[in-house]
Amino acid sequence: MLIALLLVLGTAIVVYAAALTRAALTQHAVPKIEALVLGAVVSFFDALGIGSFASTTVWLRFRQLVPDRLIPPTMLVGLTPPAMVQSVIYLILLGVMVDPVLLVGSAIATLFGGLVGAPLVARARVWIVQLVVAIALLLAATAFAMTNLHLFPGGGTATGLPAALTIVAIAASFLFGLLANFGVGNYAPMLVMLSLMGMDPRLAFPIMAAGGSLMGAGASVRHIRIAQVDLKIVLGLALGGIPAVLIAALLIKAMPLELLRWLVIVVVLYAAASLLRAALVGCRIHIAESATAADRTS
Questions:
Q1: Would you state the pLDDT for residue 40?
Q2: Which of 39, 79, 54, 75 has the alpha carbon at shortest distance from 136?
Q3: Would you list the domain boundaries of the chain?
Q4: What is the mean pLDDT of the chain?
Q5: List of residues 6+ apart from 7 with CB closer than 8 A
Q6: Contact at 8 Å (CB) between 205 and 47?
């Protein structure tokens, strides 16, 4: 089953690469230098367990590189290639140790969740996207804080789960894949869930990476076709992130990350507060416009 999953992942990589290449050539897009650097930095630390969605959202919003509405899909499409590299590495190193039903089931469920969520985020109102991303940032900050305070679930030593918990994990994977379209990374919630269920936390990485890669590929192709992404940013994140992931995953054994997490927490909380404020303003405007429209029709 592991070989089959690697073959499916290889197919997903080819399909994704073809879709992105076709779109880039059609629009004559070239990678933005700033996005290249950003992709390298966030993907490097993502491979070390820091995560990339929160920090990428912060920078894109701080620099106003893309509109708030396009941040989640642009980020998802751009960070999918580095995630694919991670998934291949983790599957080869740790995948053979994981229960194949849990591994494959969670990966496929995350993929379908991503496919369902892609058109939803494209039609969502801007303030709703802002609100969802703000919540995602708060969740990420909470996960970082829990890790630093040693309150993050330590997990057990299991390589698989009982049948009932396996079903729950697969169902939750579908939800995580759907939410990833709104900028909610699947790594933190998946790691917490599997650790609480008694899994060895290390074995969560091939599950998270495989699911995230398949979901990213499926959702990205739809986002590219919908044309709701900034291709210059996408190409920069992708091309900058791939070599950074290889360096982090293959050359770095261990690194003290607590101080970096605390610094990320401060920045993430600021961005979350900013997005939450913008979402509330947008919500008020929407309510006011709805009330005006109702008055006109009455």
A1: 95
A2: 54
A3: 2-297
A4: 84
A5: none
A6: no
